[in-house]
Amino acid sequence: MKKNILAIIVCLLMMYASNAQEKEEQNKTTFATKIIHNSVAGFYPIFFGNFETNKNFDITFYTIFWTNPSFGNLPSGSDLLLETSVGLGFKFLNKSLYVNPSFGFTSGKFSSNSTGTKIGEGIVPSLYVNYQKGLIDFEGYISYYKSIREDDGILTKDYLLNWMAPGVSVSRRVVLGAFYESFGITRQEEGDPLLVYQWLGGSIKLKFDKGIAFRISAGATLNTDAGTSDEFYKVSAFIPL
To answer: Who has the most CB within 10 Å: 16, 91, 101, 124?
Structure first.
């Protein structure tokens, strides 16, 4: 009798372990990089991570390594801006719509204009939206860079970045559309708000196997208070790893 009870307990434990393993395997993780180069900020890579959960959202994070020397100390390029955020990714409309709000911190001297690196010099709330269904292919992003470290003698600034890329899928591999982006200083202690650039142009997105996507955009600068060029370009490659 004891042997039978023991055998039943062992079977139940094995079934529980197998079920737990199956559930664990269902929770996937993904990691990807996006390499971007544009005519103002220059070259900068981004790393993305995604942890699926058993709930109706995923846990996400990203880190941007801004490499433009003007975002740190010139001419050495030290104390460069580092941006890291954590967020939640929600899927709607049978996974056609993806909404990803995030909240993060910046480190460096980009917002605080200090002599060297400040850890957590600013906060970065952001929102990314992606909608793909049928002919429609849309991506949009907005982020606000708010300085939070205001030491004596340090001038701080706040920034707003937003872009959108509405397009039409002309085939399984090609998306044609428009591209809009603007970036500016919304607050600075010595001076008025300043629009660094406002772009509008065309865009082509190429889709490859394994989730790889390549986009090139170019067009005209609609407005600038910073004397940026009359034309712009932006190239990006999204590569799941």
So the answer is: 124
H or E stretch covering 219: strand 213-223
The Cα 92–Cα 102 span in angstroms is 17
Residues in the chain: 241
26's torsion region: left (phi>0), alpha (psi -120 to 50) or beta? alpha
Contacts of 33 (CB under 8 A, 6+ apart): 45, 46, 47, 48, 238, 239, 241
Token look-up 């190239």 returns 235
pLDDT grade, residue 113 (50/70/90)? confident
Residue 177 forms beta bridges with which residues? 167, 203
- The pTM for the full model equals 0.84
Going along the chain from its start, the domains and CATH numbers come out as 28-240 (2.40.160.40)
- Tokens 């906060």 sit at which residue? 123
Distance CA 106, CA 122 (A): 5
